[in-house]
UniProtKB/TrEMBL annotation:
Pfam families tied to this protein: ParA
One of the GO biological process terms: negative regulation of cell division
Protein name (Swiss-Prot/TrEMBL): Flagellar biosynthesis protein FlhG
GO-annotated cellular components: cytoplasmic side of plasma membrane; cytosol
Source organism, top-level taxon: Bacteria
Keywords noted in UniProt: ATP-binding, Cell projection, Cilium, Flagellum, Nucleotide-binding
PANTHER family: CELLULOSE BIOSYNTHESIS PROTEIN BCSQ-RELATED, SEPTUM SITE-DETERMINING PROTEIN MIND HOMOLOG, CHLOROPLASTIC-RELATED
InterPro entries: FlhG, MinD_FleN, P-loop_NTPase, ParA/MinD_ATPase, YlxH/NBP35
Molecular function, one GO term: ATP hydrolysis activity
Amino acid sequence: MSSMHPVQVIAVTGGKGGVGKTNVSVNLCMALADLGRRVMLMDADLGLANVDVLLGLKPQKTLADVIAGECELRDVLLQGPGGIRIVPAASGTQAMVSLSPMEHAGLIQAFSDISDNVDVLVVDTAAGIGDSVISFVRAAQEVLLVVCDEPTSITDAYALIKLLNRDYGIMRFRVLANMVHSPQEGRNLFAKLTKVTDRFLDVALQYVGAVPYDEVVRKAVQKQKAVYEAFPRSKAALAFKALAQKVDAWPLPANPRGHLEFFVERLVHAPAGTPL
């Protein structure tokens, strides 16, 4: 491994709230850590933090302190389950919801200081299509779109794809169906989405599979644990394991794309032909 290997940055998003983005983010991180990856999870729902709540962690400092210039990003890192590290957001802080483009850029650049021992950064975005969602998705290399079987989930996912594609030129989206009652339901959801994107947009959607609806997910949430840890043999945990194996095989970014990205200096300095 060259010391400057690129970091794989995956934004988990979905447009609509309640589709299970945070659950997907946390469990995907744990499954990737199980594959030997050094994983960091950023709670990018800046004003309504929920990763720490989901995992029963109590952060002393959060991204709000970093933005205020009161500490460095490395000072807010929390040790999470399974060896993952977590960058916690603030809870109930209105100012964090309306950061300026400069503040978003500063936050993205702050990650460069902690890139020395990270292989994967998973960014759990807020719901909706606000500025912070757009900033963080654009700064990632992979967009993992979480959808579930509700009409609003498909329309909101489409709205997000359309915005990112038309205004920011993002072409590639990976789609995960969450809380499905059968594998077929997941494929049907993906078909519904591609039906509208194929007609109106020039994008490539890739289906990465489904996470089944599983009663134990709620039990895990009540225990403030990831289902992957609390019920490792459950249907949901096994689906996250399969998802992590797919994600692990995605190609690493090789060059910057001309706008602000997480860990961009790792893409610039890796000389061509360096074994990654």
